[in-house]
Fold:
Amino acid sequence: MYLDHLQLTDYRNYARLDVDFSSGVNVLLGENAQGKTNLLEAIYVLALTKSHRTHNEKDFIRWQADFAKITGLVQKSSGKVPLELVISKKGKKAKINHLEQAKLSQYVGQLNVILFAPEDLSLVKGAPSVRRRFIDMEFGQMSPKYLYNISQYKTVLRQRNQYLKQLKYKQATDRVFLEVLSDQLAEYGSSIIQQRLDFLAKLEGWAQVLHHDISKGRELLTFEYVSQLKENSLQQALHADVAHEIEQGTTLVGPHRDDVRFLVNGKNVQTFGSQGQQRTTALSVKLAEIDLMKEQTGEYPVLLLDDVLSELDDMRQTHLLKAIQNKVQTFLTTTSLSGVAKTMIEAPRVFQIAHGELQQTTDTE
Structure:
């Protein structure tokens, strides 16, 4: 799939934007704070209805405007699909083929994107929450069922945590209601854990091949899912330590506390790996998503590279660009074309961005 056309209205620093993109490589060129990342974010938000940069959706709306609107035309193997997302202070409305969707979860997955930004290099060495978010955002695009389960799980988790606090401060006494919430949480949580294990096993297979190539055959990359659950099921665990959870006022076990460990030649790369190994691992995992999404959905995703080439050495740049060339539509932000021209096999379509305005400067299609 690829994004054929994009239209923005009052989004961030864009009053109005109407642009056609190449199905290959699109370079967004400009100085910092001119709107390159805003444009990349708009594509991400069009796909996922949320940002990778902020939780405050009012930030999307241009100063003194009432709402922001993102419209896209997605080309799939089955035909063209118009998408529309309107963000206002009252919430979000999403349309597929001009029909409003009752739930955002029904909308997500129409446009699949993979974002690779400098902060993604912290996927390996960052906090467990970084890896959980990575899993949920990426797998949610590939599986409506996973997206539904994670949404329901978070809703019940909030309810259960609130009720644990009420029990802690003697504002409630009904343990039966807590058991009902525990059973619901266990049902959704168990499905999430199983789906994560299945997806991670497939992602590991793709990532191993890439990591093997980048390390010139010297390293084997493996994944390990880290859970607090041992022998007990999630349902048993949620019922086993209720007194401690009431004392803490929060749910202490479940997929919201799980993690993924990356091992290189059997050693935890987060703890024992060099910076080069950590970056190779992060690159391998992100690139593996491309093939996994194709395997799961039948379509290649759109790749968003936010100033990431400047963070990679020549060898890793070469592997990155080799992996995407003639395969996926790519949007790449940069402050300079030096380095892009020499590493690209085929010249990209180049857009100059300044003060929230975009101008096409090169087209070699």
User: Anything to note?
Assistant: The CA atoms of residues 156 and 185 lie 6 Å apart. The chain has a mean pLDDT of 91.
